[in-house]
Structures are given as C-alpha cells and as structure tokens.
Amino acid sequence: MHLVLFFTRSVSLKRWQSQGMIGRETALYRQLLPHLDQISFVTYGGADDLSLADQLPGINILCNRWGLPKRLYALLLPFLHFSTLRSASLFKTNQIHGADVALWSQRVHQKPLIVRAGYMWPRDHEREVGRSWRTRLMDRIAARALRRADQIVFTTDGMKRYAADHYAISPEKIKIVPNYVDMALFKPQPEVEKVPGRIIAIGRLHERKNLDLLIQAVAGLPNAHLVFAGDGPERAKLTRLAQSLNVDVQFAGAMANDQLPELIATGEVYAMVSRFEGHPKTLIEAMGCGAAVCATDVEGISNIIVDGQNGRLCQPTAESIQETLSQMLGDNATQNKLGAAAHRYALNHYALEKIIEQELAIYKTVVGGAA
Fold it and tell me: Is 310 in a helix, a strand, or coil?
C-alpha cells in the first residue's frame, strides 16, 4: 500500500522544523511506515525540504523543487509528481485547507481519497474574522472535498455533527480518529522539580488563545509567573500588556517538541484558555506529561477535560481564570491528583499505538472498497 499525504496549503517541512513541530507532525507516519509499502509527502516547500530527508528515512518527499509560483505549482502538481502519484494506493489530506489540490490530483489519477481534518477550517476562520467572500469560498471548498471524499476523518464528534448538519454529509461516511500523543516522549518527569508559581502555556501566540486574559488573571496572583512556548502575531502586544501590568512573562519562543516535556514538568499548572479549539495537541501532550490543567470550558476542550477529574475548567474571563488558578497553585495534592488522572486519560484515549491501529483499519477499508 502506497499512501500519499497532501500537506496543508503553504505548509512545508521547513516550516514544521522552524516551529519545532516536525517530530510531532511526522511521528504517526514514521510509525506507520513499517506497515505500508511506501509513504509520500506532498509539501509546498522548495528544494530545501529535501534536505530534511535524513529525518524521515523511507518517506518520499514531493516538493516544489522547481521554485514555481505557489498557484502554478498547485495547478501543475498532479503532473509534476505524475509517476509517484500514479503509483499511489490512496490519497489523504492533512487538513481541509489544501483539499482542493488533493481533489484535483484525485481527478487526474483516479485514486481513493481520505479527507482528514483536525479543525473545521471555514467555521474557525469565520469565528475569527466574520463572514466574507473568503469564508464563503472556504465553505465551497470544504463542501466539495467532504462530498467527494471516499472517507472523512475528523478528530472530534463535534466536527462530525457540524459536517452532517452544515454540509449534509452522511454520518456513516465519517470516522473519528483523535490527535495522538507519543507517550514515549510525553510522559511524567518525576526527576524534574516544579518551579513554585509557574504556569505554562504552549501554542501559537494568537488572539483566539486568549493569552491576554491569562496575563490579566496572573496580575492578581502573588508570586505567579508565566512561561509561553510558541510564537505568533500577538507577541508584541502581549509583551506590552505584561509590562503594563507588571506580570513576569517569559517568552520562550518556538521549541522543539522533544524539549516540551521537561518544560511542562517545571510548571505547577498547564493553562489553555482559548476562545475555542479543534482537538488541541498541546493540551493532550501536557496531559500525557501528567500536568495539572486549567482550561476554559469551550468547544474542543470541554470534551477532553472533565472538571475536577482530569483537570479544572473555568470561564473565558480573567476573573474566572484567576479564581481557578488561585485554587490550584500551591496545592500539590490537587496538582498530583489531577495530573495522574490526566496522564491516564491521555494514555487510554490518545496513545500513538492506538491511533496507528485506527488509521490502518481505515486505509485498508478504503483501498479495499476501491479495488
């Protein structure tokens, strides 16, 4: 079986590397490789993506080594990589954004297609910027991709219900495969000492993450301080806010995935206070590490965290976040109890080995159905 994975539009292996994500994002496919004959990645990077081949032994990298304009590359892609795509058993998208290129390649090469999505691209974009011609175009791309797919894979039941209602997709066509945690990497680090008052947040510094509310919440907590791992467009704004409120915030920047478990272990609390999420990888990785989680009671989080059992939920307001953090900081017994439950939950639901089994079952069904 030869699987071809189409990357999200504009995403390259170099981008994953620069954001410290290449290990996490490719772990599933590196583990799948012994079960398949071949795996190929269709990326939007240039020839420098090929320089990362030694990190992905056995995986074929199909990139824009000609340096073509992005739109022209997407248009010609089924022909530029003709022989490899023609030899494939099935195509798969990493997200809906980019599924149009996979659909175009499917039309040329007549291969079965799995449309996978970890978040609902058009809906999330509309939540951030409002309804526009761009979101309407996204909606049309998503509708076409989901209707033409041989199989759809979402990470949550909420996405499944939305697709069934909004795009009139039969629920029987949709499988739920959550994001995975490499539990060999993201595991408790008992040898690492917690730093009193430390609160960890990991992810893109983006408006939807509500990190301004987290800073405001910590402003009222004596001896508490924040460590943000990640980068993004809100960094300058968040820096100014922290300075104006005299909050101790360390901006650690983008970190490689294998550096995160030790960082998480230094915190008393792991915080995720987003406005909404899809199926947040950093949250379930922190849970794998046995972190005591403080998170907002919003879509994409509340289906993972059960308040008082494997974490604490709060409302997306500075006051509610502050109250919850104040109850958790300094309470080692509560932190240990929540962290142990979080680790068990991640192990039982998101361990990479379990996801590999689910993925292989889907591939075999789709290829068998197309034979």
Answer: coil
Q: b/e map of 251-263 (b: 16 or more CB within 10 Å)? A: eeeebebeebbeb
Q: Are residues 8 and 105 in the same domain?
A: yes
pLDDT digits (tens, 9 = 90+) for 122-180: 788 788 778 888 889 989 999 999 999 999 999 999 999 999 999 999 999 999 999 99
Write out the E strands in the chain.
2-6, 38-42, 59-62, 90-93, 113-117, 151-154, 174-176, 198-202, 225-229, 249-253, 269-272, 293-296, 312-314
In a domain, 187, yes or no: no
Total domain count, the chain: 2
Q: Are residues 243 and 151 in the same domain?
A: no
Kindly report, residue by residue over 84-121, the tens digit of the pLDDT.
999 999 999 999 999 999 999 999 999 999 999 988 87
Q: Which of 226, 235, 225, 352 is nearest to 288 (CA)?
A: 352
For residue 93, the SS3 value is strand
Residue 122 falls within a domain, yes or no? yes
Range of the domain at 332: 198-350
Instruction: Please tell me whether residues 285 and 157 are part of one structural domain.
Output: no
**Per-residue pLDDT tens for 219-240?**
989 999 999 999 989 999 999 9
CATH of the domain at 152: 3.40.50.2000
* Same structural domain, 140 and 77: yes
Structure tokens at 220: 């009222």
Using an 8 Å Cβ cutoff, are 279 and 179 in contact?
A: yes
Q: Cα separation of 300 and 297, whole Å?
A: 9
Regarding whether 231 and 172 lie in a shared domain, the answer is no
CA end-to-end distance (rounded Å), the chain: 12
| The pLDDT value given to residue 210 | 93
CB 272 within 8 A of CB 291: no
**Euclidean distance between CA atoms 267 and 272, whole angstroms:** 13
The dihedral built from the CA positions of residue 89, 95, 98 and 103, taken in this order, carries a sign that is positive
pTM: 0.90
User: Does 192 map to a domain?
Assistant: no
